[in-house]
Amino acid sequence: MPAISGNEYIERINQLKTTIWYNGEPLTGEISEHAAFKGAIKSQAALYDLQHDPELIDVMTYTSPKTGNKIGISYQQPKTQDDLIKRSQMIQKWAKTNHGMLGRSPDYMNSILMALSASASLLEGKENCFPENLINFYELAREKDLSFTHTFINPQVNRSPFYLEETDEPIAAKIIDEIDDGLVIKGARLLATQGGMTDEILVISPGGINDPDYAFAFSIPSDTNGLKFICRESFALGDREFNHPLSSRFEEMDAIVVFDKVVVPWDRVFFYKNIQVANSFLSQSAFRPFALHQVINRQIVKLEFIASVTEEIVQSIDISGYGHVHEKMAEIIIAIETMKALLLQAETKAAVDEFGLMRPDLTSLQVASCTFPKIYPRLIEIIQLLGASGMVTIPTESDFESSIRKDLDQYLQSAKHPAKDRVELFRRAWDLTMSPFATRQTQYERFFFGNPSTIASDLYQNYTFN
Amino acid sequence: MPAISGNEYIERINQLKTTIWYNGEPLTGEISEHAAFKGAIKSQAALYDLQHDPELIDVMTYTSPKTGNKIGISYQQPKTQDDLIKRSQMIQKWAKTNHGMLGRSPDYMNSILMALSASASLLEGKENCFPENLINFYELAREKDLSFTHTFINPQVNRSPFYLEETDEPIAAKIIDEIDDGLVIKGARLLATQGGMTDEILVISPGGINDPDYAFAFSIPSDTNGLKFICRESFALGDREFNHPLSSRFEEMDAIVVFDKVVVPWDRVFFYKNIQVANSFLSQSAFRPFALHQVINRQIVKLEFIASVTEEIVQSIDISGYGHVHEKMAEIIIAIETMKALLLQAETKAAVDEFGLMRPDLTSLQVASCTFPKIYPRLIEIIQLLGASGMVTIPTESDFESSIRKDLDQYLQSAKHPAKDRVELFRRAWDLTMSPFATRQTQYERFFFGNPSTIASDLYQNYTFN
Amino acid sequence: MPAISGNEYIERINQLKTTIWYNGEPLTGEISEHAAFKGAIKSQAALYDLQHDPELIDVMTYTSPKTGNKIGISYQQPKTQDDLIKRSQMIQKWAKTNHGMLGRSPDYMNSILMALSASASLLEGKENCFPENLINFYELAREKDLSFTHTFINPQVNRSPFYLEETDEPIAAKIIDEIDDGLVIKGARLLATQGGMTDEILVISPGGINDPDYAFAFSIPSDTNGLKFICRESFALGDREFNHPLSSRFEEMDAIVVFDKVVVPWDRVFFYKNIQVANSFLSQSAFRPFALHQVINRQIVKLEFIASVTEEIVQSIDISGYGHVHEKMAEIIIAIETMKALLLQAETKAAVDEFGLMRPDLTSLQVASCTFPKIYPRLIEIIQLLGASGMVTIPTESDFESSIRKDLDQYLQSAKHPAKDRVELFRRAWDLTMSPFATRQTQYERFFFGNPSTIASDLYQNYTFN
Amino acid sequence: MPAISGNEYIERINQLKTTIWYNGEPLTGEISEHAAFKGAIKSQAALYDLQHDPELIDVMTYTSPKTGNKIGISYQQPKTQDDLIKRSQMIQKWAKTNHGMLGRSPDYMNSILMALSASASLLEGKENCFPENLINFYELAREKDLSFTHTFINPQVNRSPFYLEETDEPIAAKIIDEIDDGLVIKGARLLATQGGMTDEILVISPGGINDPDYAFAFSIPSDTNGLKFICRESFALGDREFNHPLSSRFEEMDAIVVFDKVVVPWDRVFFYKNIQVANSFLSQSAFRPFALHQVINRQIVKLEFIASVTEEIVQSIDISGYGHVHEKMAEIIIAIETMKALLLQAETKAAVDEFGLMRPDLTSLQVASCTFPKIYPRLIEIIQLLGASGMVTIPTESDFESSIRKDLDQYLQSAKHPAKDRVELFRRAWDLTMSPFATRQTQYERFFFGNPSTIASDLYQNYTFN
């Protein structure tokens, strides 16, 4: 089966009987029509459709080594620098359709699954490890173009450094039994972005495991029995694109994932109850360089979008004559060029790793991943500072459709724009920086790579000084 | 007539036939029941009710020198340091009921009107100036406990330093005629916070006037013929207090104010077509020290609320053992104590001014007003940093009322709180830092005193070095 | 004996046979004539002389409750708010003579000794504690106007959190014996500012003591047998005031203090080998509020000096028309006014403590002590930024005395100054910000109150939220 | 004549009769033996010697297209990407010998002269322009391996934006006459780094010229009649390398340059009295990309030195276990990798320009040049923060040669170093961050590329948004 189309994606998701709770009610009906999901599903479908654009066929897909089908490049194991550059082009192509706002577009998880399965040899001959399950599952996912959510963290019950969970009923998801059909999991995990709108959920222990019951890695279909996704409030405030140009299209849901005695079939278990493997697999595998590579590519596209919105505001209200505006615009340019240069360095210094993958330079990517969470909130702030009162002078499209329009046309025009265009611009800026969608994006980017101190420590402790 | 009650306020506002446009439609029906206004109106009414609390009568009111009625202290001309301290107590008392979130609670405009009228002597004997109108109107407002919105800035059409408006039809509001009944005004002004939910609108030119047609100061009822308030989208996302504890109660609207050949009666004109007065009245009057004095008091209450929410998060998820948490909490404490110390200094160094007012020390207040716009966004960021994933793990009250509650109870409990209390806390933190209401608050505080460079220049240029 | 004069101070120091090593040689001859010490000694003598200025007698001294002599106010136990304000006035008066550059002017240690002896009741009835020694010694010091250096920290051998010293020979000073004559101390301590140029050295354990051999507090004369002061390189680069206007006068030495089997007489021991007392005495005593109170007063004077130098540069090269200059000057003003306001708050909220002292509010002082180490380096940087190339265009006084002067007069004049005055100004700015004296001042202020994280933790952990 | 050796450089400089004033006296005797110059001259000579190292001949030199001699690569006009990379290697090789501390090592001016002469066609056919003089002079300099100082800025008399010099006697250097022998120049310019220790001085107007008398570009020998170099105080505090490991070797002098009716021979004039050319030549020529390319290469070497010193301190006192140390070390790594990535991007995106030069990408270099002045002072601060009290505990080599050594050996040892090594390390850190040499380096790097706002404006105004 070749790379899927948008419709195939939507149909497959609609057919699943996934248990999703939203605002006190279980979802019924097609998820692709639900207000909290339809924007992101439609945008995601558009990504899949690009795989079938005749002009982009070689940008978006490659030939399956197994079936000869044209399949998505994010599933490809890159062997050459050229493969790596193609991978970047594909990622950026997708990201441009959503301005880098879909943090969990399918290429992210596809890249991770590719990297993990390429590293399956790390599981060879280890207790309770099933490298062949991992490889088989990767091939299945690749050929079927499966989509994924995942969860890496435990509930935020207690963040004390000395906390060990000791409750009768599990809170963090754990193995409570092993039966003929598979592992039995009970408890919860956070936060599944796109939870409910993907084929599968991939679950991996991130390290720091002391108790074998918390050591596992597997993937199961979203509608597995006992699996529940509990959504937060949606940040899609409406579906008119003029009013909410970003959130109406790119709001990905975040869900708490509850495992209510979920049975994970044995052929979907990659490892379990092996503390040593649970604590080392992610860091020893090709996971980090390839996950970071996808993310940095997406973030560059996002920065370019931020730059274009900001420059448009500067031109619109004609503030390009101020020194402080130059300094703020220079900050944005510095951000973009720094991220691009680090990506270039990562690819220029790429080398074939122990798994035969052309692996981008991890240090360069780590530096980028330490840089972005600091600059993103600052760039968001710059837009607010330059937009000033314009950021709250935001009537709606309905106002422009009413008799009050002639007042708006007169009083909200700008130096370069008629009123409606100008309000459209400032609403875009608002949805990028001040809407609940926007603030969630900021929070998301800030913590994407984990705790800032931890990623700084990682960088330092793995760095070789000249 | 003594200080009004909440009901009197609501009735008076409801009776006005103010023209308000919201989302493409003119408001009909009672404004106090309209989703976009009802929260703030109810919270404002609660302020007025405090004036009738028997235990607070001496905190909230003083005896009118004219009528002997008990009237609001914010209207009082302070003559002694004790008056000043009582003024602070009153302001903080009101602010505490809304955590300092009502930026335009009535004491703000009351203080301004008091200060302006006390400075009326500046208008004596000047062309087109009517100091007695100002004094009479202050007394009217004081005795009737009138509420106000106001506008100080022109539309953001073009912010170029070289821009001069040259259009056939006015954009910024200007005098287009003088008739027997008064001045005729056409054009628009930004941004009337609480626009539509007050008795009156006060309009004053802020300086920088080159053309006499833009030089004026007056006050007119909100329902004056030809006056229109065009609202932005509301940031009250719902009216359940659990879900949106702040925005459901404290969302003040911001409106564009359109003057469509509005006639300002002569007895409501304070001055007009006097460029020299227009450019100097605000800065030479007692306006700044008393406006700042009200604001700093409110902001201190807001900081204390921020501190309490943050400390509650720290305790809830038990992160008080981390050094970086201490440093962030110390930042908050430093912010509070610095603002309090500056207010104390302003009051300790207060002196009787040329108008006979006990005027707080302007430098201390200016320093506070340079400090707050920098620290407020940082404290908001600190809450986001400490709240981390908890800031987006926010199911709704409906979830807690459904059968999914038992999962929430188990998986969203925190070290110190059962799940519902913990979600209530994090929703409060979200509404304080990440909701559209929150981001508008940040934008509002950032620009409250005007452009940061301008307020820094003001401070420097008026400072005497030892 | 009343408060001493400058000459009395110099004579007393010269008569001591203190062992001081400088640049590979022991000092011989009078210390007051030694290039590394003479500037600071002369400046310190000037402080003592102020005590005899007839016009300042009531500002600088009070009447000894024991002898009726006029003695230094820094030794006074303040009982009233007025005492506290007088104390501040005295401290600022002294500090102004050296622009706050003498970090260890005698009032610092006098205040500490006053506070410790007032807290002597904490030692009552505890093992190996001698409160009467402390009180007697305080009275002796007060009546003789003794001067002090002190040391609070151990050598920086190993700063690992897990380090415990385990060497055959002591590194950090410790008790190695108790004999009839007193305690025997061996080892070293850091960093004695003014080490060698004071009558006495006060040594107190700062807390964190695990081994009773490190638990002690005492004072001994600087020339005690076995006591050695090993100096760093001097930062007084020359003695011409034009060339080095600050360092030629205010360079205080820092010395490593070596105890080579030093015998501390029993009557000079305040406590020893009592771990509980060693770890709690400083924090439970009145030490912190009074030490901080002296320091904040001095730092305010220093900030005012920084402000005056900066403003003089701005005027000299006529840059007061730039917005970025206003913003930087505003930063300086904010720094001064914030520190003053916090001091005012500390004094306004002062209350009588358990020892009968009128104790300034500790929180306000702690906030100031968290603030200053951040703003001081920034203000230093501002001077460098505004001074720009002028900071390195610094010929010497000899140049102005040579035939090249006419070129300097023409080419180094500024908008407001003839060349020599302008170079004098920029040399002052250089000596304040870029000389070795200047960088040591920055380092000193940065760490004055200890590690920034620690003082932030202290602030948070002792704060009561509303 | 091939690339010169160190001795040839020294002999040539010593033979010049350059007029240099230092501390009120004209230099007599050999400049290479003068305390204020000998360190830098020796270090510079070492650079020239590298050109004769048989193993480095191909790294340091190329074959003159004119004479077939081996001449310095910094004079080469790069035509290919390989040329560019060789240029970088040569620059870094030189810089490593002085840790990037020689800001004006010969490659800097050589690169500039190369770039200017390659751009000579811009002067073709323009009034008072002599492109052939520029080309001839470049070839002369290249073949003789001449060394240069230069001056780009006018005296800091008045920095007001509205200042125009109007004095009887010139202050800023200007043309006062044209005679048969050449232009006559009177006035001064700032700041000639290495002024007096080079063969020639290159003088170019930087733009912003309104008066043709200030429009000129030329080069003359340092000992031209009427030319005077007036030095600032030297920052070489001594010549023992242990005590002052950097300043004793790398202190470059800064001098005021006085033109006392200096005659510039016509064949050394590149252009004069052409305002349009004076204002555009530097920016239109290849000057900026090649000057920046040299600087960024040098700064990367400097960052690596900073990193190595900091890491050595961390290891020495064993503080690598602290989170805040990791964060600070990560900042350093981020700085290095960001600068390297930007250089890589500049070279990867290099393209042949209108003059046939392989020109590195200017935007990437501009971004680096906006970044470095911000990070350099911060990294210097990090060393001070980590070094803490160790930064002032710095006895001298003489102390280690005296009998006090045994105390130092015991009390100043560190976790990883014997005392003398540890003091050597901290003295190095002091000379890098806190000596007058260090603070001048910081000031120099901060302003190297000019005013930070200006370089930000340049970046923004020339950037093309996607």
TrEMBL record, chains A, B, C, D:
Record keyword Transport present: no
Alphabetized GO MF terms: 4-hydroxyphenylacetate 3-monooxygenase activity; flavin adenine dinucleotide binding; oxidoreductase activity, acting on the CH-CH group of donors
Record keywords: FAD, Flavoprotein, Monooxygenase, Oxidoreductase
EC number: 1.14.14.9
Domain of life (superkingdom): Bacteria
An individual GO BP term: phenylacetate catabolic process
Residues that hold FAD according to the record: Q156, V157, N158, R159, T193
Keyword Flavoprotein: yes
Membrane-crossing segments per the record: none
Residue intervals of the HpaB/PvcC/4-BUDH N-terminal domain: 6-270
Gene3D superfamilies assigned to the protein according to its UniProt record, in alphabetical order: 4-hydroxybutyryl-coa dehydratase, domain 1 (1.10.3140.10), Butyryl-CoA Dehydrogenase, subunit A, domain 2 (2.40.110.10), Butyryl-CoA Dehydrogenase, subunit A, domain 3 (1.20.140.10)
Pfam families for the chain: HpaB, HpaB_N
Root EC class: oxidoreductase
Domain HpaB/PvcC/4-BUDH C-terminal: 278-465
Protein name in UniProt: 4-hydroxyphenylacetate 3-monooxygenase, oxygenase component
Classification lineage: Bacteria, Bacillati, Bacillota, Bacilli, Bacillales
